[in-house]
Every structure is written in structure tokens, then in C-alpha cells.
């Protein structure tokens, strides 16, 4: 098993309530994943996403079952999930901590943690971490860019 941890932040020119509403909308979060094949919104907190992935030399589809497990409006939200695909399994957690910079600007601190086992983990931690960082950065950049388009 390989553990992946990644943290970062971004600022967006939008008020904290709008940012929180966006980041806790399952459809908007699901659409931020790169190469989405299918989205199934189960309820206001649960959603499934099928994505195409490439990790090192292996590529294919992965099914992610995601759920908001913590919400503290408008300051904090946490998504947990299980992913299966590429002959691998992933337990993941993505959290957002929001801070008001001013009435029209919000700071978003985010943290991603995953435990990955199976074929993807057998590629080695360097390859897996590099591929994972690339995918997570795409998701975060898509969320940031989509939030910026709202203004």
C-alpha cells in the first residue's frame, strides 16, 4: 500500500458562501475530474464518478464512490470515497477549509489523502505519487477555474 498526501491552497474572487455552495455540490465536484466518463448523483451528499486514468504504464477506467461526510457551512467540507479500477483500490479523503479574506475573496485550503493498493501501488511510490499529484492538481485547478468563471 502506498499513502499519498497532498496539500495546497488557492484564492478566488467570490464570497465564502458562494464558494462553499459550489464546493459542496456533488455535480460540480464530479465535473472537475479529468476525463469523466459518467456521473451518478445519488443524493445531496453522495455521488459516483467513472473516470479514465493513466498511472505510469497502466491506464483504464476507475469507479469512484464519493460522499460528503462533514459539512460545516461555510467553513469546512470533507469528501471520503473508495475507488476501484486499474486492478487497484483507493481509499481517499479530500477536504476544503475556507477563510474569508474579504467580502468578495475567499481562501481555500485543501488536503488530499489516499491509500492505494494493488497494481497501481506496485509501480512504486515515485511513479504513483507523480501520477496522483497530476490528477489531484487537475481536479483542484478545474474547481478553481470554474469558481473563477462565476465572477
Describe the protein in words.
With 151 residues, the protein is an alpha+beta fold. Helix content is 28%, strand content 54%. The protein has a single domain, classed as START domain (Alpha-D-Glucose-1,6-Bisphosphate, Chain A, domain 4, 2-Layer Sandwich), CATH 3.30.530. Strands 1-7-6-5-4-3-2 form a seven-stranded antiparallel sheet. Strand 4 and strand 5 form a beta hairpin. The N and C termini lie far apart (42 Å). The model has no long low-confidence stretch (mean pLDDT 94).
Task: Write a brief caption for the model.
This protein has 151 residues and is of the alpha+beta class. Helices cover 28% and strands 54% of the residues. It has helices spanning 16-23, 26-31, 119-122, 125-149, and strands at 2-12, 36-41, 46-55, 58-72, 76-85, 88-102, 105-118.
DSSP E strands, number: 7
N to C succession of SSEs: EHHEEEEEEHH
| Strands side by side in the biggest sheet | 1-7-6-5-4-3-2
* Oligomeric state of this protein: single chain
Query: Over all CA atoms, what is the radius of gyration?
Result: 15 Å
- Main sheet makeup: 7 strands, antiparallel
Low-confidence stretches: none
Amino acid at each position: 500500500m502506498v499513502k499519498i498526501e497532498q496539500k495546497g491552497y488557492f484564492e478566488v474572487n467570490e464570497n465564502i458562501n458562494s464558494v462553499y455552495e459550489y464546493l459542496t455540490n456533488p455535480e460540480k465536484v464530479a465535473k472537475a475530474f479529468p476525463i469523466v466518463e459518467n456521473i451518478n448523483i445519488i443524493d445531496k451528499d453522495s455521488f459516483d464518478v467513472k473516470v479514465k486514468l493513466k498511472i505510469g504504464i497502466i491506464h483504464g477506467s476507475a469507479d469512484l464512490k464519493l460522499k460528503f461526510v462533514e459539512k460545516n457551512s461555510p467553513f469546512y467540507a470533507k469528501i471520503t470515497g473508495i475507488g476501484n479500477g486499474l486492478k487497484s483500490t483507493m481509499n481517499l479523503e479530500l477536504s476544503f477549509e475556507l477563510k474569508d479574506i474579504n467580502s468578495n475573496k475567499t481562501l481555500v485550503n485543501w488536503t488530499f489523502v489516499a491509500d492505494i493498493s494493488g497494481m497501481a501501488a506496485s509501480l512504486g511510490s515515485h511513479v504513483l505519487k507523480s501520477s496522483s499529484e497530476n490528477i489531484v492538481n487537475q481536479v483542484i485547478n478545474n474547481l478553481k477555474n470554474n469558481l473563477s468563471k462565476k465572477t
